[in-house]
Protein backbone atom coordinates (compact mmCIF):
# COMPACT_ATOMS: atom_id res chain seq x y z
CA UNK A 1 0.00 0.00 0.00
CA UNK A 2 2.33 2.75 -1.24
CA UNK A 3 1.85 6.38 -0.23
CA UNK A 4 2.37 9.44 -2.43
CA UNK A 5 1.88 13.08 -1.55
CA UNK A 6 -0.75 14.65 -3.76
CA UNK A 7 0.83 17.37 -5.89
CA UNK A 8 4.42 16.33 -5.19
CA UNK A 9 6.46 17.16 -7.09
CA UNK A 10 3.54 18.12 -9.36
CA UNK A 11 -0.07 17.14 -9.92
CA UNK A 12 0.79 15.58 -13.30
CA UNK A 13 3.34 13.39 -11.50
CA UNK A 14 0.69 12.33 -8.99
CA UNK A 15 -1.60 11.17 -11.79
CA UNK A 16 1.18 9.34 -13.63
CA UNK A 17 2.61 7.84 -10.43
CA UNK A 18 -0.72 6.34 -9.40
CA UNK A 19 -0.99 4.50 -12.71
CA UNK A 20 2.66 3.40 -12.66
CA UNK A 21 2.57 2.24 -9.04
CA UNK A 22 -0.60 0.26 -9.70
CA UNK A 23 1.10 -1.58 -12.56
CA UNK A 24 4.17 -2.14 -10.37
CA UNK A 25 2.28 -4.26 -7.85
CA UNK A 26 0.35 -1.98 -5.49
CA UNK A 27 -2.99 -3.30 -4.29
CA UNK A 28 -4.07 0.03 -2.82
CA UNK A 29 -2.47 3.48 -3.08
CA UNK A 30 -2.65 6.10 -0.36
CA UNK A 31 -2.65 9.72 -1.51
CA UNK A 32 -1.84 12.41 1.04
CA UNK A 33 -3.81 15.64 0.82
CA UNK A 34 -1.18 18.36 1.43
CA UNK A 35 -1.52 20.08 4.79
CA UNK A 36 0.53 22.89 6.31
CA UNK A 37 0.90 21.07 9.66
CA UNK A 38 1.32 17.35 8.79
CA UNK A 39 0.20 14.96 11.51
CA UNK A 40 2.99 12.68 12.82
CA UNK A 41 4.88 12.97 9.55
CA UNK A 42 8.65 12.96 9.56
CA UNK A 43 10.82 15.36 7.58
CA UNK A 44 10.51 13.64 4.19
CA UNK A 45 6.72 13.70 3.93
CA UNK A 46 6.46 17.06 5.71
CA UNK A 47 8.84 18.58 3.16
CA UNK A 48 6.92 17.03 0.25
CA UNK A 49 3.68 18.52 1.55
CA UNK A 50 5.31 21.93 1.91
CA UNK A 51 6.59 21.74 -1.66
CA UNK A 52 3.18 20.63 -2.95
CA UNK A 53 1.44 23.52 -1.20
CA UNK A 54 4.05 25.97 -2.53
CA UNK A 55 3.33 24.66 -6.03
CA UNK A 56 -0.38 25.38 -5.54
CA UNK A 57 -1.79 21.94 -4.70
CA UNK A 58 -5.02 21.88 -2.72
CA UNK A 59 -7.80 19.31 -2.15
CA UNK A 60 -9.67 20.24 -5.33
CA UNK A 61 -6.59 19.92 -7.54
CA UNK A 62 -5.63 16.63 -5.92
CA UNK A 63 -9.16 15.35 -6.53
CA UNK A 64 -8.82 16.29 -10.21
CA UNK A 65 -5.47 14.49 -10.47
CA UNK A 66 -6.97 11.38 -8.85
CA UNK A 67 -10.00 11.52 -11.12
CA UNK A 68 -7.72 11.49 -14.16
CA UNK A 69 -5.80 8.54 -12.74
CA UNK A 70 -8.99 6.69 -11.84
CA UNK A 71 -9.94 6.52 -15.50
CA UNK A 72 -6.76 4.51 -16.12
CA UNK A 73 -6.68 2.10 -13.16
CA UNK A 74 -9.02 0.18 -10.89
CA UNK A 75 -6.56 0.03 -7.98
CA UNK A 76 -7.94 1.04 -4.59
CA UNK A 77 -7.30 4.70 -3.75
CA UNK A 78 -7.33 6.05 -0.20
CA UNK A 79 -7.00 9.71 0.81
CA UNK A 80 -4.95 10.57 3.88
CA UNK A 81 -6.39 13.84 5.13
CA UNK A 82 -6.35 15.99 8.24
CA UNK A 83 -9.68 16.50 9.95
CA UNK A 84 -8.99 20.26 9.70
CA UNK A 85 -9.35 20.05 5.92
CA UNK A 86 -12.50 17.95 6.16
CA UNK A 87 -14.02 20.41 8.63
CA UNK A 88 -13.05 23.48 6.63
CA UNK A 89 -14.62 22.15 3.42
CA UNK A 90 -17.51 20.52 5.25
CA UNK A 91 -17.65 16.79 5.93
CA UNK A 92 -20.54 16.08 3.56
CA UNK A 93 -18.99 18.08 0.73
CA UNK A 94 -15.54 16.59 1.27
CA UNK A 95 -16.80 13.00 1.28
CA UNK A 96 -18.85 13.62 -1.86
CA UNK A 97 -15.95 15.24 -3.70
CA UNK A 98 -13.56 12.49 -2.64
CA UNK A 99 -15.92 9.74 -3.73
CA UNK A 100 -16.76 11.50 -7.01
CA UNK A 101 -13.06 11.82 -7.83
CA UNK A 102 -12.55 8.07 -7.46
CA UNK A 103 -11.30 7.64 -3.91
CA UNK A 104 -12.40 4.43 -2.21
CA UNK A 105 -11.77 5.59 1.32
CA UNK A 106 -10.31 8.06 3.79
CA UNK A 107 -7.69 7.89 6.53
CA UNK A 108 -8.17 10.70 9.06
CA UNK A 109 -5.24 10.44 11.48
CA UNK A 110 -6.16 13.31 13.79
CA UNK A 111 -9.91 12.85 14.09
CA UNK A 112 -11.43 12.92 17.55
CA UNK A 113 -13.73 9.99 18.23
CA UNK A 114 -16.56 12.41 19.00
CA UNK A 115 -16.54 13.41 15.32
CA UNK A 116 -16.12 9.95 13.90
CA UNK A 117 -19.72 8.76 13.87
CA UNK A 118 -20.90 11.53 11.55
CA UNK A 119 -18.04 11.00 9.12
CA UNK A 120 -18.48 7.23 9.23
CA UNK A 121 -22.14 7.57 8.27
CA UNK A 122 -21.26 9.94 5.43
CA UNK A 123 -18.65 7.49 4.16
CA UNK A 124 -21.17 4.67 4.43
CA UNK A 125 -23.63 6.68 2.33
CA UNK A 126 -21.04 6.83 -0.46
CA UNK A 127 -19.76 3.28 0.11
CA UNK A 128 -16.21 4.30 0.92
CA UNK A 129 -13.96 3.24 3.77
CA UNK A 130 -12.96 5.26 6.83
CA UNK A 131 -9.83 4.31 8.76
CA UNK A 132 -8.68 5.77 12.06
CA UNK A 133 -5.34 5.12 13.74
CA UNK A 134 -4.53 2.59 16.45
CA UNK A 135 -1.17 3.01 18.17
CA UNK A 136 0.93 0.35 19.94
CA UNK A 137 0.10 2.16 23.20
CA UNK A 138 -3.67 2.38 22.65
CA UNK A 139 -5.61 0.97 25.60
CA UNK A 140 -8.02 -1.94 25.02
CA UNK A 141 -11.03 0.23 25.79
CA UNK A 142 -10.04 2.98 23.39
CA UNK A 143 -9.00 0.43 20.77
CA UNK A 144 -12.51 -1.01 20.80
CA UNK A 145 -13.97 2.48 20.38
CA UNK A 146 -11.63 3.36 17.51
CA UNK A 147 -12.17 0.13 15.60
CA UNK A 148 -15.94 0.43 16.04
CA UNK A 149 -15.80 3.78 14.26
CA UNK A 150 -13.80 2.40 11.32
CA UNK A 151 -15.29 0.95 8.16
CA UNK A 152 -13.33 -0.90 5.51
CA UNK A 153 -10.04 -1.26 7.37
CA UNK A 154 -8.02 -0.15 10.40
CA UNK A 155 -4.71 1.73 10.29
CA UNK A 156 -2.20 0.32 12.78
CA UNK A 157 0.85 2.36 13.67
CA UNK A 158 3.67 -0.15 13.38
CA UNK A 159 5.87 2.06 15.57
CA UNK A 160 5.49 4.99 17.92
CA UNK A 161 6.85 8.36 16.81
CA UNK A 162 7.04 9.99 13.38
CA UNK A 163 7.02 8.55 9.89
CA UNK A 164 10.38 7.90 8.28
CA UNK A 165 12.64 5.15 7.01
CA UNK A 166 13.88 2.68 9.61
CA UNK A 167 16.40 -0.17 9.59
CA UNK A 168 14.76 -2.70 11.91
CA UNK A 169 11.55 -4.54 11.02
CA UNK A 170 8.60 -3.52 13.20
CA UNK A 171 7.14 -6.01 15.66
CA UNK A 172 3.37 -5.86 15.28
CA UNK A 173 2.10 -9.32 16.24
CA UNK A 174 0.84 -8.28 19.70
CA UNK A 175 -0.92 -5.18 18.34
CA UNK A 176 -2.52 -7.14 15.51
CA UNK A 177 -3.74 -9.82 17.91
CA UNK A 178 -5.23 -7.15 20.16
CA UNK A 179 -7.10 -5.58 17.24
CA UNK A 180 -8.29 -8.96 15.97
CA UNK A 181 -9.83 -9.60 19.40
CA UNK A 182 -12.19 -6.64 18.98
CA UNK A 183 -12.65 -6.30 15.20
CA UNK A 184 -12.80 -8.42 12.06
CA UNK A 185 -11.80 -5.53 9.77
CA UNK A 186 -8.60 -5.83 7.71
CA UNK A 187 -5.53 -4.17 9.23
CA UNK A 188 -3.05 -1.99 7.33
CA UNK A 189 0.19 -1.26 9.18
CA UNK A 190 2.36 1.76 8.50
CA UNK A 191 5.14 4.00 9.91
CA UNK A 192 8.76 3.14 9.23
CA UNK A 193 8.14 0.33 6.75
CA UNK A 194 10.96 0.83 4.28
CA UNK A 195 12.18 -2.41 2.67
CA UNK A 196 10.90 -5.67 1.18
CA UNK A 197 12.01 -7.36 4.40
CA UNK A 198 9.76 -5.03 6.37
CA UNK A 199 6.85 -5.73 4.02
CA UNK A 200 7.33 -9.48 4.47
CA UNK A 201 7.52 -9.13 8.26
CA UNK A 202 4.43 -6.91 8.49
CA UNK A 203 2.20 -8.88 6.12
CA UNK A 204 2.93 -12.02 8.11
CA UNK A 205 0.39 -10.60 10.57
CA UNK A 206 -1.38 -7.61 9.01
CA UNK A 207 -3.34 -7.46 5.77
CA UNK A 208 -1.36 -4.61 4.21
CA UNK A 209 1.94 -2.79 4.58
CA UNK A 210 1.90 0.99 4.09
CA UNK A 211 5.13 2.52 2.75
CA UNK A 212 5.39 6.30 2.64
CA UNK A 213 8.66 8.11 3.36
CA UNK A 214 10.79 5.52 1.56
CA UNK A 215 8.82 6.12 -1.65
CA UNK A 216 8.35 9.87 -1.33
CA UNK A 217 12.06 10.33 -0.65
CA UNK A 218 12.98 8.48 -3.83
CA UNK A 219 10.51 10.57 -5.82
CA UNK A 220 12.61 13.63 -4.99
CA UNK A 221 15.55 12.23 -6.93
CA UNK A 222 15.61 11.80 -10.70
CA UNK A 223 12.46 10.68 -12.52
CA UNK A 224 9.79 10.62 -9.77
CA UNK A 225 7.35 8.32 -11.56
CA UNK A 226 10.00 5.76 -12.47
CA UNK A 227 11.49 5.94 -8.97
CA UNK A 228 8.11 5.29 -7.36
CA UNK A 229 7.27 2.42 -9.69
CA UNK A 230 10.68 0.77 -9.43
CA UNK A 231 10.69 0.88 -5.65
CA UNK A 232 7.09 -0.36 -5.44
CA UNK A 233 8.07 -3.29 -7.65
CA UNK A 234 10.95 -4.08 -5.29
CA UNK A 235 8.77 -3.76 -2.18
CA UNK A 236 6.19 -6.09 -3.70
CA UNK A 237 8.72 -8.91 -3.75
CA UNK A 238 8.17 -9.07 0.00
CA UNK A 239 4.53 -9.87 -0.70
CA UNK A 240 5.18 -12.38 -3.44
CA UNK A 241 7.73 -14.43 -1.57
CA UNK A 242 6.73 -13.75 2.01
CA UNK A 243 10.46 -14.02 2.75
CA UNK A 244 13.24 -11.47 3.19
CA UNK A 245 14.99 -10.55 -0.02
CA UNK A 246 18.05 -8.48 -0.81
CA UNK A 247 17.36 -4.77 -0.88
CA UNK A 248 20.89 -3.77 -1.90
CA UNK A 249 19.45 -2.04 -4.97
CA UNK A 250 17.74 0.49 -2.71
How are the SSEs ordered, and which strands pair?
Layout: E1 3-5, H1 11-23, E2 28-32, H2 43-54, H3 59-70, E3 76-80, H4 83-89, H5 91-101, E4 105-107, H6 113-125, E5 129-131, E6 133-134, H7 140-149, E7 154-157, H8 173-180, E8 187-190, H9 196-202, E9 208-209, H10 213-219, H11 224-241
Parallel strand pairs: 1-2, 2-3, 3-4, 4-5, 6-7, 7-8, 8-9
Helix pairs in contact: 1-3, 1-11, 3-5, 4-5, 9-11, 10-11
Structure explained in plain terms:
The protein has 250 residues and is α/β, with parallel strands linked by helices. It has one domain (3-240): TIM Barrel, CATH 3.20.20.70. The chain is 47% helix and 12% strand. It has 11 helices and 9 strands. The protein has helices at residues 11-23, 43-54, 59-70, 83-89, 91-101, 113-125, 140-149, 173-180, 196-202, 213-219, 224-241; strands at residues 3-5, 28-32, 76-80, 105-107, 129-131, 133-134, 154-157, 187-190, 208-209. It is globular and about 45 Å long.
Overall strand count? 9
Query: Can you count the helices?
Result: 11
CATH superfamily (homologous) name: Aldolase class I
Distance between the termini: 18 Å
Features of the shown structure:
TIM Barrel, alpha/beta, globular, 11 helices, disordered C terminus, 250 residues
In short:
This protein is α/β, with parallel strands linked by helices and 250 residues long. It is 47% helix and 12% strand.
Amino acid sequence: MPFVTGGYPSLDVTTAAIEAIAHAGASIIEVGIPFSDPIADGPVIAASMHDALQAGADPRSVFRAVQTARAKTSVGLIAMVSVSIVTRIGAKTFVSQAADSGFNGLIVPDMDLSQAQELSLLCQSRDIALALLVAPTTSPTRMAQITEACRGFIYLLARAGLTGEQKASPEISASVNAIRSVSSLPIAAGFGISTPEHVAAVTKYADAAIVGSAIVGRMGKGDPVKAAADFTRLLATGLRTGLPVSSDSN
